[in-house]
Protein 1
Amino acid sequence: MNYVLAIVTGFNVSGAEEVTLKARGSAISRAVDVAEVVRCRFLRGVEIGKIEIGSEEMRIEEMNRTRTVSTMEITLTRSKPKPRAKPKRKRSQKRKEE
Amino acid sequence: MNYVLAIVTGFNVSGAEEVTLKARGSAISRAVDVAEVVRCRFLRGVEIGKIEIGSEEMRIEEMNRTRTVSTMEITLTRSKPKPRAKPKRKRSQKRKEE
């Protein structure tokens, strides 16, 4: 939830046009969760932009060797506001009297 | 490693032009690992194509409710073969004698 808050702050407080999430290893699935929660629940006007995956060497000091880990970058972009559709008139509801 | 083997088989035995990996939840990071292993170690002529993320409702029978899980699709495509660069000559290795 901290990541979600950070992204929402980036868009709404800092006024960013795009925010990039970066994750590696097993945190990748969490990054996807965060992007989806932001897009579907918090910021409706934000869309998934570019998604990139890759891999990088990571040094493990304890074992004195390197390990390859997968990386991911998800760019969230603020979409242009669409022209609003005219609100539909409410139809008078007919109720069946019992 | 079974997933890697399945993709390699898809490209080399079945002759597919593209293979799509689908994963959801915590398996997403593994799908990225698989795509990277295939691309970097097994099939050099394969590139990452389209990557899509999303979410779907999943029914949990035991608890009799639904849960939203993140999903991911990675499309691997066979790239056009590039003209080969000339192989570099091996330099003779100089060793320090102790």
Protein 2
Amino acid sequence: MEPDIHPELQPLAFLLGTWRGTGKGDYPTIQPFDYEEEVRFWHVGKPLLLYTQRTRTPADGQIRHSEMGYWRAVPGGRVEIVLAHPFGIVEIQEGTVEGGRIEVASTLVGLTATAKEVTRLERSFELRGSGALAYEVRMQAVGQPLQHHLSAELHREE
Amino acid sequence: MEPDIHPELQPLAFLLGTWRGTGKGDYPTIQPFDYEEEVRFWHVGKPLLLYTQRTRTPADGQIRHSEMGYWRAVPGGRVEIVLAHPFGIVEIQEGTVEGGRIEVASTLVGLTATAKEVTRLERSFELRGSGALAYEVRMQAVGQPLQHHLSAELHREE
């Protein structure tokens, strides 16, 4: 049985569901690339979303990246995101949710001994209409200044 | 199509699959408790495991805790674990895998603004026979010294 949505989760409830779409990535140290993405948000009756994401290379369907974690709704229009990345990174993002717009920036990026050096991440999400979600990721990494890294537009699966 | 197991993942391959069992938790600041647990490890052809875990209260099936993240196999018998917790914690664990035994300790515990104060976690895992996995978690939190927090024994689903 699906639990009720926790009242404190309401500001983030527009994210619930499975989203698919395409995005583009670039950074000074790599070749620009396209990707296909699937994002899933679900809940278990608590004031938080469970989150998984994965991207694939369009040409061959190879899995490229993935992330997992939790999006916590905090009273007062705040959001806290805790994420793990397969390339040895943990990330805490904090910021605001207002209407269909979320703006967060990393308060912590933690690296394992063998991880690539990422020092700051900022993420923006915007609901467009009721069924499209656009996002941008800005990254400071491997000695480069904070700058655009990823953008994508996803559509909610029925 | 299931990808082949990456050769560097072999030291951790014994974890692959879905595991279920029961555990016990205690800490000076809380009442001792029992839990039911489901752990899932899978792979996508890279030298890492994807990991999700959740526990429930036996009496009513309520979801109690969950975690998600990645276990990275590092050449030389090393393992790096990156985890996110729903109560606003990210965790990096590093240590060793030797045979069916894994010993890791946190190199980083990161907290969101509203998270409970956890300062150190240590985890031990031991394969028993081919189908049982026992673990212990030791925790330093909320001003208490590092000490036993959780232990469980899980069995691999066929």
Protein 3
Amino acid sequence: MAEFSLIDRIRQRAGSRPDVALGIGDDAALIDPPKGQQLVLAVDTLVEGVHFARGVPPSAIGWKALAVNLSDLAAMGAEPAVALLALTLPDDDSAFVDEFAAGFAALADTHRVALVGGDTTRGPLAASVTVMGYVPKGSALTRAGASAGDDLWITGTLGDAAGALALWTSGLPMLRTGRLRDRLDRPTPRLGAGIALRGLATACIDISDGFLADLGHLLAMSGLGADVEADALPASPALLEAFPDPLLRRELQLTGGDDYELCFSAPVARREAVRKALDAVATPASRVGSLVAGARLRLFDADRLPLPLPARRGYVHFAGSDA
Amino acid sequence: MAEFSLIDRIRQRAGSRPDVALGIGDDAALIDPPKGQQLVLAVDTLVEGVHFARGVPPSAIGWKALAVNLSDLAAMGAEPAVALLALTLPDDDSAFVDEFAAGFAALADTHRVALVGGDTTRGPLAASVTVMGYVPKGSALTRAGASAGDDLWITGTLGDAAGALALWTSGLPMLRTGRLRDRLDRPTPRLGAGIALRGLATACIDISDGFLADLGHLLAMSGLGADVEADALPASPALLEAFPDPLLRRELQLTGGDDYELCFSAPVARREAVRKALDAVATPASRVGSLVAGARLRLFDADRLPLPLPARRGYVHFAGSDA
């Protein structure tokens, strides 16, 4: 091990890109940014016992540490390029690092992301990842920019990860949680959808803290309110099967978090264009409501009858989190 | 506190730059990179109990978390631009965050670094910082590129931080360690020197793990050896006073680490140019030896008599660290 440090193990899986002039191995990496593009930068940390439970497979931690960051780039409409990893480990566990790196690399390779910086330190298990991507100047999606009257959309389905967590903490056998658990452990960042929505979405955010919580951020930044049809929130067959009670299921979808789907607004006139753009990248999407003037958020059922807002709107950040 | 999260407290001190199109507050930051420049990226983590002791002032932790990263940019000859901070805290301690942010901002403001990404999570105290800077295409300094016969140089003085740590762990009163302690807690990244050395230094590295350990990295990447005159290693008046024993002092200078000085090579013919360039940025520098062919590192005293190499060459990384 003395001649083959943990960082060297990670470096084996770093990948390469033509814009990376110098990768891991010097004091810093050197990147040639493409012309006409803005850089898009985000950082997120996963801590054992807070963001994932003890016993989650190292490969899933590696995958998710990158996925939650790529999801931030997706929400900006960015194309990912490079990542830097700060991995803190309680001991010199090369098997853990190999599995972590394999999970990280599986997702990185899918999206041609090169790992250009790595730092391994001793301490309680945590992984902090910084990602950088590119977006043509002026075409980034942001949380601001929505207009009253815009449709409100959601990619994919909501509630699976929260459902897996609920089942898992209730002690149910893994057998039942399989498909849901995969959404919790290995979320799929909606990168193709984010890029497809450039020029179409007026505002966008990824759902990490829970639909209502993240929608709240979008509304605050856009200075608007929303009318949401709760029964229109998309649910997977696995969620429908595991949670037949509609009230419990709705709670998971509204406040559960860890979905890593995109929540975005688009003009009513672009409804068909949105549909086509997302079809082209094989991303399902549902219209779930409308943006309205004023700072109010209202929930309705399928009969347009008002529903109470849940007391708890989403995962309560210990200390807030951004970018 | 509910309406004013920890990340908002940090955001107050984020600073601004014309190349930052969108800072903290969305899913990611947007940067307009300057034309003709390469991007320089590095990440480093400080963990309580590993990189700093319990009881170090929060402002010093904030300063140092940025400083160790800026030192990596200095070693590349880069000009810093933006930073992203992932801060992990055991509890919701707003006073800690305010002091941490003040220390971070004091250094960031000095070098016009904007904080464009922040993530605060709960967990054992740690700060992971990613920095991005710029360097004109093709002019970055790297660890490779030195030639046999080149002079070996060191900026500033060595051993102060290691001396402070030695005195502190031995239980000496703070009074004696003051000036040394400041080097340990608030290191000065040699950014001006790094930029001044563009086109002059043939290879460069910052001294974080200890002079011999980091020189070893430079030699390995350049495929060379070195003859070093141990008595030429620069010592501060504070170190000379606190450690009158030359053998102990030399040990601190050779292997102590946490110096954040630059160790670089330059052609003999550029000796005066190096001197002038560093004088212009008020950075003292000393010639401490020469690079030689072959993979050997030899130490000499002032009379050119060979000295034994210390058994321990520097801070032994738990798991390796790079970029």
Protein 4
Amino acid sequence: MPSDPVRVALIQMACAPSTEENLDHAVDLVRQAARAGAELVCLPELFGAQYFCQREDHRLFALAEPIPGPSTARLSAVVREAKITLIASLFERRAPGLYHNTVAVLDHESAGPDHIAGIYRKMHIPDDPLFYEKFYFAPGDLGFRAIPTSHGPVGALICWDQWFPEAARLTALEGAQSIFIPTAIGWHPSEKSEFGAAQYSAWKTIQRAHAIANGVFVCAVNRVGHEHGDVVLSKPDGTATDVPGPGDHSSDGGCNSGIDFWGGSFICDPFGRILAQASPNQEEIVTATLDPALVETTRQHWPFLRDRRIDAYSNITSRFLD
Amino acid sequence: MPSDPVRVALIQMACAPSTEENLDHAVDLVRQAARAGAELVCLPELFGAQYFCQREDHRLFALAEPIPGPSTARLSAVVREAKITLIASLFERRAPGLYHNTVAVLDHESAGPDHIAGIYRKMHIPDDPLFYEKFYFAPGDLGFRAIPTSHGPVGALICWDQWFPEAARLTALEGAQSIFIPTAIGWHPSEKSEFGAAQYSAWKTIQRAHAIANGVFVCAVNRVGHEHGDVVLSKPDGTATDVPGPGDHSSDGGCNSGIDFWGGSFICDPFGRILAQASPNQEEIVTATLDPALVETTRQHWPFLRDRRIDAYSNITSRFLD
């Protein structure tokens, strides 16, 4: 495993209704990060569209695409050109009627199609008001993974996964020394004033805790912007259909519906210390250098992997112990 | 299960070399908390002595006692008198040559000896410079538990357990809606300026994360004071032997050895929000009211128990997946 420090960039971006536009924008930002020295870059969850899961609409399955597919083809060009590793979250069409929320890790040294070094399919699928993901995504069936890259094994989890300590633990046990977590999380406008601070704090706290519990770097990347989930569907004949999201889109009332994505992308070290942190309100490239030596030093001083009671954890596979 | 809110008190205290003195002091503080309305009270880890595990000394096994035993007899009196539930951390002598770091939960309604409703034996045993616990304590063999009390099932973990998400998860799956964590954690004086803030932050972060991940209240209670682990051993014949701990005890040099226990006892709610927090430097009784209704509301809004991928967690029982 390479022991060299790696320069990481998280692309905190806003997403438009058009996939073409988002891909252009993402490629620009990735190229900009690479020019500034980034070797390992991560995009936010489902950056190819506005967050469309705010309603259940069968037409939106048309957004899904195979992996490899058009998006990985497009992204692989910048991966090759900039000689980087790129973690990209995509709406995967695996088979007719079978879709996943999937991360593809593209590595310039990978010989696979579109430089794909490996994929991870979101294991924990949420279903909450405005986050109707169980309608769109089948739960992942690949388990938790450390995907080999030119910068060593890299773990990926996706959004809702971030709330499950088991996910981070298993990813670390697979050998990942860093876990990237593409995310699309935000406030319901009606809840923000009462619960917003606690929700943001809980989100950051539990992810820092994954770093601490496992002695790994954690890199969480979120989108920004206020979205109703507006989508432009392009048809093979070149025409396009606007599919506006739910809620009040008027300029004066629109802020009371939709989701206010909170940004706040961050990188923390294996003891949960924040190395870099984005603002909540704007696009930003968050960078830090991850030194694998710090994983080993931290784990020597806080030897949790040594002391885990693996003889006593088997009930973790129970739903409840009643 | 009772659904009434319960008034909780954590006894953040300093510990003296003499067990008798510590028991007197603990009983005073518990009585004081009960007079102020506390119904469920928790003492810090091994409050009956200075933190003696700073060295490996066979003489110190003499501090251990059976459960039930002299300490639970003494504590049961205040439990009965004040009609409370008390969580007490003790150095348990289970058999000749077999010792545990154990919590006893005493409940005024329990018909057991000394009102003992149940015990929990520390599952994760640390071994680090000045924390030589693997010398003294056999790992617990009772698993993770929710101990029935007159205030519903109560979970207990002990210090080093607090770094293991599996421990909190399994305790919650057993039905505990609150987890009490008696602790003896502090800074090595030589490390405090460089690492102190990060260590304290990690400690608080991971415990708040247990609350968030499981939708339970977490109540962490630590001791305060600078200790070298000085102990007074009382013999059956009424005589006593001073056993000073390691390090420089001189008034000018003593602050460079021993452990500086950082206090900071806190209570957080099922979404990790701090309800009450002690200072780092002084004895303090930390109180809050825990409302079980908040456990259910929080879990309805953040339904992690619903979405756990119990089909995919079996590798948690592996040491590493290489």
